[in-house]
């Protein structure tokens, strides 16, 4: 495993944190936008040291994907989009399109445990930064490539974007209002789920490769594709077709296999009803005063409710319509019937359950600017996720990493900066004081 240079690099932690499960691992992050940065942020949350290599003067594309921007008094503040996927990382501004810059990245890769990149297939070969070039230099390296369509196949050379993948994968064919309804037509999911799912699958593959390396000493190349990941996540809809032969269609908020499992209009708002068993359905009918529906042989089992979905849902809609949403949800909770509201983003972020789970985390950037991030959801009892470094300013760690990790002298670093191969940023006041007194 690569050693951590945290102490030498002088991070600015707010508090001591317990040991993290991936502490001691070093990740070289050559990615931008979302799918791959999401994977490397997870590795960082779990304790790995992540070095994010960015283009001088520009950085990750998402730094400019605003508004909104984090107002920090700088001429080029970072966009909220960038902040969502780049905590627990250090930023190095290195132009690896130039030979000197590529040489620096190769040196960093020789000491890395994991490298993650999301350039187009073959895009890093011309810089000598592809898997075929780096694995001979570091046979223990786990090299993860994330692309739209993978390293092989007829689409391998194409660029892939979340919206494109949502459409090509079939996801949009089952998302949106059904034919004949007002507003019918395919709709993308309101979040870039194809990017996020791919980042999650990539992280799982990286952890599996780490276990393989632990047993054998071997690194390897991981090939992750957005299309593959989203096809894998067609789950029950794809299996419905493979088993039943019928092409799934858009159902709006209804479920293809379970009834009742959808939204209903109460007198003042919408409520979600999600009955996953016959017992829950009978409990719903009882609290609505419709025991006749529970007793109807057509609705005794889920198969019958699915077959006569339209008749049942009309009756349930009539019974739910007079209720106030809050009253119905309280009654459902008491009766053991799963359900809930349709929250807006501000509502869910203010929800007491979200607060109790500490899903919002306050962090401070090295220039003193405060930023609140959404935390890592997995709760590890012995080695929890940690929040050590707020999303970094562009190039804020270039000088420190080149000095501490590569042992470069001040004159050599300054020559690279003057030549435009690297860019640096002023260190935070705490770090400057620590270096002065060291």
TrEMBL record:
<dbReference type="InterPro" id="IPR003673">
    <property type="entry name" value="CoA-Trfase_fam_III"/>
</dbReference>
<dbReference type="InterPro" id="IPR044855">
    <property type="entry name" value="CoA-Trfase_III_dom3_sf"/>
</dbReference>
<dbReference type="InterPro" id="IPR050483">
    <property type="entry name" value="CoA-transferase_III_domain"/>
</dbReference>
<dbReference type="Pfam" id="PF02515">
    <property type="entry name" value="CoA_transf_3"/>
</dbReference>
<keyword id="KW-0808">Transferase</keyword>
<protein>
    <submittedName>
        <fullName>Crotonobetainyl-CoA:carnitine CoA-transferase CaiB</fullName>
    </submittedName>
</protein>
<dbReference type="InterPro" id="IPR023606">
    <property type="entry name" value="CoA-Trfase_III_dom_1_sf"/>
</dbReference>
<dbReference type="GO" id="GO:0008410">
    <property type="term" value="F:CoA-transferase activity"/>
</dbReference>
